[in-house]
């Protein structure tokens, strides 16, 4: 009898799947925690549809106004429509080859795919807006939202930067967080080396580097405490440098320094030698501000009207020092304050670094996307399905295509996710067998089909 039982147990064990196989994956997560103030903003923004929720005609309003003769319509060329069904992510429009090369789009697609492999995503449909700011058309009008296309309600839009009056839901600026050589993720891996530059040895100079261009809200909507409109920070601080090179090194790229040399880029890995870092916005939120948080230096941040997904959780004089807040030259007052209260300035720098490491690392960003899409899915009032979409391509195939196409192959670190998940993803084709098919669709399909036009 004992031998029979032993044989039965052995056979039962042999019939179990082998957990040491190389293709074993952990079970997808169904919960995670966010910083409470980041969560509060996300919950507030996903409730704007009220009891009516999101109907299919709202989703279609993003792409229905896009016949071949109107491809310049803003809503047609700046949004990537996405559908998620049974945990699989699909793109339901394909960008023309001259429209998909920006890391603002690529980075989010890569990060969304990784989110789908780590978390169990709900059925949901939305568009990701990959321009600098959420579309101006999505503005608040009284208790409602303006949108120029029928049915004139707010469609589900995701964007990485917006102003208070815009209706988009904020997501991480994934392209800057993960794609460049000096990405946030890359810099995060260097925090040990960065921290080896002692605070006391850092130069008491306010350092900044940028190209000169300015957001729409300067010289107008952004009013400083003295009641005057703010000048363009990147122009103004460049000019201030010539007046006070003893405390400022805030020069625009390829402009003359006081020694006659040209101001060249300085690697983020080397900027921690300065005790103070000046952050200014461009067309929208700065793609470098997230990285500055990691440097262990005091950030002097020019105030603006646009914000990113985590901005409600960062506070002036706790994580950064505001400038262009009282008046246009208050940067000098803030530098003097930082010198006088050096220990307090150091504490603010430490707070910023700690906040970034805890709340902006990759897992935290994936968690945020998962939680946002989970809340957004609760607003869906129709069955999400590829059956009613003329284009429905698994995102894994689109990312494999981007990783091989000449125009996009070097734009992001695709293989961080492809090597982990794509080779045995049941939603993909073997290796890159779908590349030629997608290339032809991107390059040759009629534009009204590319953009998911009227049906």
From TrEMBL:
It comes from the Eukaryota. Keywords: Signal, Transferase. Residues 120-383 form the Glycosyl transferase CAP10 domain. Residues 1-22 form the signal peptide. InterPro entries: CAP10, O-Glucosyltr/Glycosyltrsf_90. It holds the Pfam family Glyco_transf_90. SMART domains: CAP10. Belongs to the glycosyltransferase 90 family. PANTHER family: KDEL LYS-ASP-GLU-LEU CONTAINING - RELATED (PTHR12203), PROTEIN O-GLUCOSYLTRANSFERASE 1 (PTHR12203:SF35). This is Glycosyl transferase CAP10 domain-containing protein. It comes from Volvox africanus.
């Amino acid at each position: 009898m004992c031998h029979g039982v032993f044989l039965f147990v052995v056979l039962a064990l042999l019939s179990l799947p082998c957990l040491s196989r190389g293709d074993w994956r952990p079970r997808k997560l169904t919960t995670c925690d966010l910083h409470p103030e980041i969560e509060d903003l996300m919950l507030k923004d996903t409730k704007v549809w009220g009891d009516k929720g999101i109907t299919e005609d709202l989703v279609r309003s993003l792409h229905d106004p896009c016949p071949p003769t109107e491809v310049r319509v803003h809503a047609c060329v700046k949004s990537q429509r996405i559908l998620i069904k049974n945990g699989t992510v699909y793109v339901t429009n394909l960008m023309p080859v001259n429209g998909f090369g920006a890391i603002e789009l690529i980075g989010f697609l890569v990060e969304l795919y990784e989110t789908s492999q780590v978390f169990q995503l709900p059925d949901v449909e939305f568009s990701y807006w990959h321009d600098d700011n959420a579309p101006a058309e999505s503005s608040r009008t009284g208790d409602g939202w303006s949108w120029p296309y029928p049915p004139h309600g707010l469609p589900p839009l995701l964007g990485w930067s917006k102003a208070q009056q815009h209706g988009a839901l904020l997501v991480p600026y994934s392209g800057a967080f993960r794609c460049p050589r000096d990405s946030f993720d890359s810099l995060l891996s260097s925090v040990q080396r960065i921290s080896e530059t002692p605070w006391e040895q850092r130069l008491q100079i306010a350092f900044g580097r940028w190209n000169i261009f300015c957001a729409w809200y300067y010289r107008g909507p952004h009013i400083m405490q003295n009641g005057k409109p703010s000048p363009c920070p990147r122009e103004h601080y460049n000019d201030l440098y010539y007046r006070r090179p003893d405390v400022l090194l805030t020069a625009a790229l390829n402009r003359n320094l006081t020694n006659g040399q040209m101001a060249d880029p300085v690697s983020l890995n080397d900027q921690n030698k300065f005790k103070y870092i000046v952050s200014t916005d461009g067309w929208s939120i700065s793609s470098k501000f997230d990285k500055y948080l990691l440097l262990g230096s005091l950030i002097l941040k020019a105030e603006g009207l646009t914000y990113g997904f985590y901005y409600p959780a960062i506070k002036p004089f706790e994580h950064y020092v505001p400038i262009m807040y009282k008046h246009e030259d208050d940067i000098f007052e803030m530098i003097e304050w930082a010198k006088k209260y050096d220990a307090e300035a150091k504490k603010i720098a430490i707070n910023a670094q700690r906040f970034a490491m805890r709340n902006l690392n990759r897992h935290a960003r994936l968690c945020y996307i998962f939680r946002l899409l989970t809340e957004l899915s609760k607003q869906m009032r129709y069955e999400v399905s590829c059956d009613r979409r003329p284009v429905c391509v698994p995102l894994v195939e689109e990312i494999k295509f981007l990783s091989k196409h000449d125009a996009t192959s070097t734009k992001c670190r695709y293989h961080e996710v492809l090597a982990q998940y794509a080779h045995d993803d049941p939603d993909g084709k073997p290796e890159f067998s779908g590349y030629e098919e997608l290339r032809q669709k991107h390059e040759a399909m009629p534009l009204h089909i590319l953009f998911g036009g009227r049906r």
